Amino acid sequence: MKYAAVFCMLLLAACASTGPISTPAPSTFMPPRDTPLPITATVERCAYVEAYHSLPDLSAQIDQAIKQIQADASGRAEAYGENCVTASNGQSTFSAMETDFYFTINVKDLKDDNELGTWIINTMKIIEALPASAIAGPQAGFVEFTFKTKDDQKNLRVQIGSYESLPANFNAAGIIPTLFPSP
Q: Any idea where the domains of the chain sit in the sequence?
C-alpha cells in the first residue's frame, strides 16, 4: 500500500507543469462562439423507379363527363412518372411526366370506323376541356380506349399529341385509318 501511494505521488509530480501555462491564440478560421456552425444539407441519392399514381379527383370528373354521353361508359386518369426511392429508408417522392386517360365505351360494331372515330372525338373534347392545372406532368400522355360489344372488345391507344396534330374538323370515319394505318 505504501508503494502505491509513493507511485501515485511520483506520477502526479511528473505530470505537474513547471512553467507558465500557455493558451493557444484563437484561430482565424474558427467562427465566434455565438455564431452557429453552418449546416450543410446532404442530398441522399435515390433510385428512380417507373410508377403510376391514381388521380381520384380527375378520374371522378372525366367519369362523370363520359357518363353524360353514355351511362354505361367509364373513365379514369393516372399520372405516369417516376418514384425517387431512397436507399436508407425506402421513402419515395413521385414526379409526374404525363397524365394518361382510360375509357371503356360500349359500341354497336367494332369494325365501324365512323362510330369509333366519333367516340374518339367526343372523348378528346372532354380531355381538351380540362384545365391545364388538372393535368399532371409536362408532356402529353395517351388515351386508351376499350370499345366493347356484347361479345368482343377492341383496345386502341391514341397519343394525345398525334390526335392534336390532326386537322380541325377531321372526318370521324378517317380517324381510325389515319391513327391506326393497316400494315
A: 53-179
